[in-house]
Structure formats: C-alpha cells, structure tokens
Amino acid sequence: AAARPFNFSAGPAALPLPVLERAAAEMTDWQGSGMSVMEMSHRGPEFQSIIRKAEGDLRQLQGLPEDFAILFMQGGALAENAIVPLNLAHKGRVDVLVTGSWSAKSANEAARYADVQRVVDTQPGGYLDIPPASTWALRSDVDYVHLCSNETIDGVEFAELPDLQTLGCQAPLVVDCSSNQLSRPFDWSRVGLAFGGAQKNIGPAGLTLVYVRRELLRSPLPACPTAFSFETVAREGSMFNTPPTYAIYLAGLVFEWALGFEYAGLRGLAALEAQNRDKAALLYGFLDRSALFFNPVRPDVRSRMNVPFFLRESGLTDTFLAQAGAAGLLQLKGHKSKGGCRASLYNAMPLAGVQALVDFMQDFERRHG
Ligand code: PMP
C-alpha cells in the first residue's frame, strides 16, 4: 500500500497499517467462515476463539498476573468514572490525585457517589507538575485512591506508579490508563484496578478495558447497573451482555501485532516502550532547543504519549497547523481547552513519523524565525 500521512491524533488514533490491511482482507469472510466478524454471534465458537485469544495475548503482552481479570466493557473511560465508585466505594470515601483534566473529571464524577478528597490538585499551576508522593496526605480509610497515569490533554505522565503501601495507605490504587496502557510496562503489584478506553493504543472506540484484581470483585452498590457490575462481567467472561465484538476483534489484531513488534533488538512491549522513549526524546529535545516552539511541562513528568506544544508567536499557530496538514502531518491541533498544538505518539506512530514532524518544525522555524 502507498505510504499514508503521519497521524498524530490523540484518539481515536492511528492504528498499525498491517492491522487495518488484515481487517480489510478479512472483512467479508473471516477465515473461511463465510461471515464478517460483525455478523457473528458473540457466543459462537468463532467469536469465542477471537475474544479468548485477544485476552490471552493482552495478558501476555503486559505480563498481567493471573490474579487480575481482564474485562471487555463499553461506556469508555468517562463511564468508568462512575462505574468504579459504584463497584468499589462501599465505605463512600475516595481519594483522588488531580494532575490534569481527566483526573479532575474523575474526581467530580466520583463525588456523586462518595466523599472525595482531592489529595493533590495541580489545576492552579496549570497542570504542569506532579507533587512528590511524600507530600500526599492520603486518608487511611478510603475505598480506593484514583490517579490518571497519563493526562492526555495536559501531557503529564507518572514516570512510575506510586506504591501506596510504602505511603502507609492500604487502599487499592485505581488507575485511568486510557492513554498510556500498552505503551510501557506497569508494575501491577501496585495496582488494584486499571481501566482505559481502547481508542489510543488498542483499537477503535467503543471498547473499554478493565484490569481488576479478582479479590476486589464483590457485589456493587445497589444503584449500579448489572451490566456494569465488575463481578458479573468477570463471572460471565465479558459476555453478560453483547460485547463490542468488532472492536474486540480489531484489538486482538493489534495485540498480535504488538507481540511481534521489534525495535532495538527488543520484542513486544519492551520494544514498544523503547521506541516510545526514543520518539519522546526526539520531540522534547527539539522543543527544548527551539526558539519558536516550547512545551511547558516539568521535564520529569512529561508524557511520552501526548506532547502539547505551543508557538511563542501564537498568531502563527493556525499557519503552522495548516502547513503541517498539507505536508502529511495530520491532527496536530491542540485540545480545545488548551489551544496550541499536540502531537500524540502512540504505539502505531513510528520513529520516522516523529522525525518527519521535527524536520517540518525545524523548517517552519527557519522560514518564520
Ligand atoms: N481518561 C483519559 C486519560 C482519556 O484520555 C480519555 C479520552 N481522551 C478519557 C478519560 C475519556 O474517554 P472516553 O471518551 O472514552 O470516555
């Protein structure tokens, strides 16, 4: 196939071309079954083989221990902001680390179901930093502590997940990992539950991944819809209701691609992480040297996945975006709440795409400097 433009969308985001080509080839007849995956019963043997392979491959990719269940759900990450407290907030107390726009939304939604304490709130500083864990005043008696491992809009990422136990907190850690799941390994020993929409590193929108420690599975609060009970969904193998079958199939193709991904002598998630590290270093390195472009986030919490950047001459932003688009560098417009630009560098973005972006920015700066 002809080379496609480089697509920097924050999500729904670019998918690996071999995955799209395989899905296209199998679109009308999946492996001689005479059916599109879209046309299959979710309980039939064909789809059962698809979902169980996807689940196994995802577990293997992330080294996810067997004491976690993987749930394929719907509603996206914003629905999880309610579903999680409806399942876990039995005492009605939740601590939230607000380090960006998405965790702020999580805190607001959880506050409909529980007493929420914002242990950290970096909004006054513009979400540019994460205060050190030693300063967090976590409560000892909460149902869980919520954080967003990567703030997609603000470009702020936890370099590693905190170990709540060493902070004197026995509550489970809940992680919104929508925009950095599968970009790097997580230390699952520190996690109670993680969730994320699929539409960044995993597949098309409409599928939500939930990784939940089996010991946390119990009856939800009475107000919780049965279809959103983690206990029920886990017991039914994500088949309590009809799961988003085609999105699961596509995610499975992405997992296969990721398992075989090679970079710098590495394979699988380690290879993806190495490429993600190199991509981010290339772009931040340029931004920090540039006289025109800049990223305002404190270096040790900068996101590898989402790089917001701004032009010191903000009047040039629209010109930059238009010319970038014409040069085959798509969807670089910043989130509407921030303005400026944002380059999302998910797994499907090769290093060559980031090099092309940096070359273009360098050239733009020369022409307008
Ligand atoms: N959390 C994070 C970190 C996100 O990036 C997003 C989507 N960009 C959401 C939550 C909301 O996801 P959804 O629209 O799938 O509900």
UniProtKB/TrEMBL annotation:
Co-factor requirement: pyridoxal 5'-phosphate
Binding site for L-glutamate: 43
Cofactor: how and how many bound: Binds 1 pyridoxal phosphate per subunit.
One Pfam entry name: Aminotran_5
UniProt binding sites for pyridoxal 5'-phosphate: 102, 152, 176, 199, 241-242
GO biological process, one term: pyridoxine biosynthetic process
The reaction(s) this protein catalyses: 4-(phosphooxy)-L-threonine + 2-oxoglutarate = (R)-3-hydroxy-2-oxo-4-phosphooxybutanoate + L-glutamate; O-phospho-L-serine + 2-oxoglutarate = 3-phosphooxypyruvate + L-glutamate
EC number: 2.6.1.52
Residues covered by the Aminotransferase class V domain: 6-357
Pathway membership: Cofactor biosynthesis; pyridoxine 5'-phosphate biosynthesis; pyridoxine 5'-phosphate from D-erythrose 4-phosphate: step 3/5; Amino-acid biosynthesis; L-serine biosynthesis; L-serine from 3-phospho-D-glycerate: step 2/3
Enzyme class, UniProt record, top EC level: transferase
PROSITE patterns from the UniProt entry: AA_TRANSFER_CLASS_5
Residue(s) carrying N6-(pyridoxal phosphate)lysine: 200
Cell compartments where the protein resides: Cytoplasm
A GO CC term attached to the entry: cytoplasm
An example molecular function term from Gene Ontology annotations: O-phospho-L-serine:2-oxoglutarate aminotransferase activity
Keywords of the record: Amino-acid biosynthesis, Aminotransferase, Cytoplasm, Pyridoxal phosphate, Pyridoxine biosynthesis, Serine biosynthesis, Transferase
InterPro entries recorded: Aminotrans_V_dom, Aminotrans_V_PyrdxlP_BS, Pser_aminoTfrase, PyrdxlP-dep_Trfase, PyrdxlP-dep_Trfase_major, PyrdxlP-dep_Trfase_small
Function: Catalyzes the reversible conversion of 3-phosphohydroxypyruvate to phosphoserine and of 3-hydroxy-2-oxo-4-phosphonooxybutanoate to phosphohydroxythreonine.
PANTHER family for the chain: PHOSPHOSERINE AMINOTRANSFERASE (PTHR43247:SF1)
Subunit structure and binding partners: Homodimer.
Family: Belongs to the class-V pyridoxal-phosphate-dependent aminotransferase family. SerC subfamily.
Name recorded for this polypeptide: Phosphoserine aminotransferase
Organism per entry: Inhella proteolytica
Annotated gene: serC
